[in-house]
Specification:
The protein is mainly alpha-helical. The protein is built from ten helices and three strands, in the order ααβααββαααααα. It has a three-stranded antiparallel sheet with strand order 1-3-2. The longest helix is centred in the middle third of the chain and has 37 residues. It starts with a helix and ends with a helix.
Length: 177
């Protein structure tokens, strides 16, 4: 027996059960936001950057597949590792590649980030040394402190004060040559 839709030359409407099954693995933006702790605006922003796969729409509502939760977990982990959203966007296609091509792409991205982290660690170590020495500073007036003068970009500060104190030595040992 043909339905009215079939008789009119249109495909039959799906049953309520079939419709429910087709939508069940999808999640609305509110549910994804609650499950991930992200604001809906962040999800829309990530989508606009291409960090999330294409989104289905049903009656104008975004419906995300369950795979989006894994993608968002990866984005969160990459952000914690120091990757910017732009770097993550460039990293995602490399994750999809297999074999030597994929491995080379992933290693190149990771190598660049590692070099960036090493530079940041060096900068932080220098800052740490300077702060430790600053705690031992016995300058009577802050205006005469060689450390502060040198941090201001004046390498001749010690020559003007006539001092070669602990702060000057700390500063010079922490500088990149």
């Amino acid at each position: 027996m043909r339905t009215l839709q079939e008789h009119a030359g249109r495909p039959p409407l799906p049953s309520a059960e079939a419709h429910q099954q087709s939508v069940a693995p999808s999640r609305g933006i509110g549910e994804v936001a609650r499950r991930t702790g992200l604001a809906p605006s962040a999800l829309r922003y990530y989508e606009s950057l291409g960090l999330l796969p294409g989104v289905e729409r049903h009656h104008g509502r975004r419906l995300y597949s369950t795979a989006v939760l894994d993608r968002l977990a990866f984005v969160r982990a990459a952000r914690r590792a120091g990757f910017t959203l732009g770097e993550i966007r460039r990293l995602l296609p490399a994750l999809q590649l297999s074999g030597k091509t994929g491995s080379t792409a992933r290693r190149a991205i990771a190598g660049r980030k590692l070099a960036e982290l090493d530079e940041a660690i060096g900068t932080l170590a220098s800052m740490r040394r300077l702060l430790i020495e600053a705690l031992e500073c016995d300058c009577p007036e802050i205006e005469r402190c060689e450390l502060l003068r040198d941090l201001g970009g004046n390498p001749d500060a010690a020559a003007r004060t006539g001092s070669s104190g602990v702060m000057r030595k700390a500063l010079m040992s922490g500088r990149k040559r």
